[in-house]
Inverse folding.
């Protein structure tokens, strides 16, 4: 039996593959290796998985928005679980290139639900996002909150994924879990995210862009904690018992926030990156970006109650770990 992981060359997908493989699973990872950010980093992640796990990890370069190519890649594989983490990420890029989001996050998500439908009883965990909360100013964000007013196309596609998943769970009784990720960081992270951008700029002596004059807060969540929640969600799929699930569904579909449950000031994050780099930042204060939000903060009580999720890594611990990895990776 094999677990299918989409976005296997991505940040969270790579770490999810590693965790599953480390406990003895066989994993088929798929990824289109698109050029949203450096393809070389994605290829290095795949090479690392292959080097550490050998034949237990199989990789196929495929775009899951192409249903025929997807079916061909999965032919003959007995799938016991699906971890659907592949997507077109990024709030700001969705303003520049909206069609990429419709293709990957809408068509692609539908295709993955069809993969699950064709395999009755196989659970699927999928990536949503804290971006669905839009400009919600009631903190912390709760899965019970209304999320009808997204302020970026990226957020709208993620909300749409949740709605489509609810329909599939109702019609076909597929056990589905959607995870609203709050700002994830850590080794092998994404180059378009703040922690990477700040580290790269500080070590290179370049200014860092600090949006909204620095008046921003984020629920920064370390990658190991995130993957623990992903795997717990896969191992404990929702029951088809008619009971109300997290997020309100009575079908076998639930939605969880998954974060660190601490909203940290952006300035504090920059201070920690400076300390880990051993160099001061040159701060270039900028206005708020279109589609961005001032603060995120996760209420994780539902996933704590149902799955025992309890993040353990503070940014005081996680940021130095990232900077140490970053220095090592860039000496390869």
């Amino acid at each position: 039996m094999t677990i299918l992981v989409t976005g296997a060359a991505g940040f969270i997908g790579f770490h999810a593959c590693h965790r599953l493989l480390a406990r003895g699973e066989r994993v088929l990872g798929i990824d289109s290796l698109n050029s949203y950010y450096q393809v070389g980093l994605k290829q290095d992640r795949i090479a690392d998985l292959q080097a550490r796990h050998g034949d237990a990890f199989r990789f196929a370069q495929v775009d899951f928005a192409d249903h025929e190519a997807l079916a061909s890649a999965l032919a003959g594989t007995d799938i016991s679980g699906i971890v659907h983490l592949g997507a077109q990420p990024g709030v700001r890029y969705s303003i520049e290139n909206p069609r990429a989001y419709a293709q990957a996050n809408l068509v692609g998500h539908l295709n993955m639900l069809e993969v699950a439908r064709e395999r009755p009883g196989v659970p699927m965990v999928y990536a949503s996002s804290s971006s669905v909360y839009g400009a919600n100013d009631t903190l912390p964000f709760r899965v019970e909150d209304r999320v009808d007013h997204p302020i970026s196309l990226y957020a709208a596609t993620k909300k749409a994924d949740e709605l489509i998943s609810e329909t599939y769970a109702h019609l076909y009784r597929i056990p589905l879990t959607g995870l609203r990720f709050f700002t994830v960081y850590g080794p092998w992270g994404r180059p378009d995210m703040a922690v990477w951008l700040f580290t790269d700029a500080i070590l290179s002596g370049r200014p860092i862009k600090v949006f909204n004059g620095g008046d921003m807060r984020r629920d920064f969540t370390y990658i190991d904690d995130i993957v623990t929640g992903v795997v717990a969600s896969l191992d404990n799929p929702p029951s088809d018992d008619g009971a109300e699930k997290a997020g309100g569904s009575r079908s076998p579909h639930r939605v969880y926030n998954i974060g660190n449950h601490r909203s940290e000031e952006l300035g504090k994050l920059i201070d920690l990156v400076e300390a880990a780099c051993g160099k001061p930042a040159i701060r270039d204060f900028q206005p708020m970006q279109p589609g961005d939000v001032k603060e995120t903060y996760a209420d994780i009580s539902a996933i704590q109650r149902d799955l025992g999720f309890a993040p353990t890594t503070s940014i005081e611990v996680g940021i130095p770990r990232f900077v140490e990895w970053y220095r090592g990776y860039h000496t390869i």
Notes: The longest strand covers residues 26-31. Residues 98-117 form the longest helix (20 residues). Residues 2-184+221-261+298-311 form a domain with the Rossmann fold fold (CATH 3.40.50.720). The mean pLDDT is 94.
